[in-house]
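Quick question, first post here. What does this chain look like in 3D?
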Amino acid sequence: MPSSGDGPEAEKAGHCLCLNAAEGLLQLVIARRESAGPAAFTLLCAESWHAPSQGAELLAPALADALTRLKLEPGDIDRVACVRGPGSFTGLRLALATAAGLVRATGAEQAGMDYLSLLALSAARRLGPLWEAEKGGPACPDRQGKRVLWVLTHARKQLIHMRGFALSAVGEAPGAAPAPLTDIHVCSPLEAALFIQSHREQNETDGGDSGRPFVLGSGLRRNYPAVAAGFAAGAGDSENDPAGGERIPLFLPQSFDQPLPEAMLELAGQLAYSRKDIEPLYVRPPDAEENLERIARSLGLDPERARDKLAALTRPLS
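> Answer (accepted):
Ran it through. Tokens below.
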């Protein structure tokens, strides 16, 4: 229903489109905004494709088909929430360009979503209250700190994006979104494991140990031997230390590596929208930039001219 009131604060209901192409999964979510409230959405459509190399061929036709089936026009979309990174350079540009084109064509407003925060929120909603009841978790009297969740996503071979989040502690509102604990780091799988172990040890030293942390993401899945070896090295001698196994984090199932449509809408309801283009979040330079001189020379191009062209392609859309 539309928001109440007949003054300038009143706002009619509209529709929100969420897009994600940060990794191999391409996601499209459409919801109806029931009011001007930050999270008053009714999910209408959620589609996803595992098509890492076909995003350009799929996204626009899929969006057109979804709108047709829902009996909506492009102009009915007045909010576009798009994952801005970190992730695949090609995937991010595809989704952001689609969002920018729709905004220009319809007058809608747009805003960017951080991918690691979206995965953390999805994990919190999947876990619900279960993590609090797990033995050794914050529900135990001797555990007073917040449970920590680490999101690791694939950056490229032997390199991952990593960020830590705090889940709701006992006594806090159970629906609170995970709060970032660290900046986004780009590091090797082994460095990630050692960093997570070090972070927990520091928490213990400060008297805030909250039990075994959770770990999820494509960075874990695609580099499992290296990550597991790093955690094992930091766990000590499990044969002589019965608690050694408790030093190894809890690896969440692969299903946690994909954002929930409901979490996308929840995050979309918290954003500030405008007509401005969404600034992509690139934590590391694209491969083409790091290997630009070699690529340019192999194509018979002048490296300086190639740098100018790359700069033009990677500046914010206007």
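Confidence is low (pLDDT under 50) at residues 1-10, 135-144, 237-243.
Residues 89 and 285 are 9 Å apart (CA to CA).
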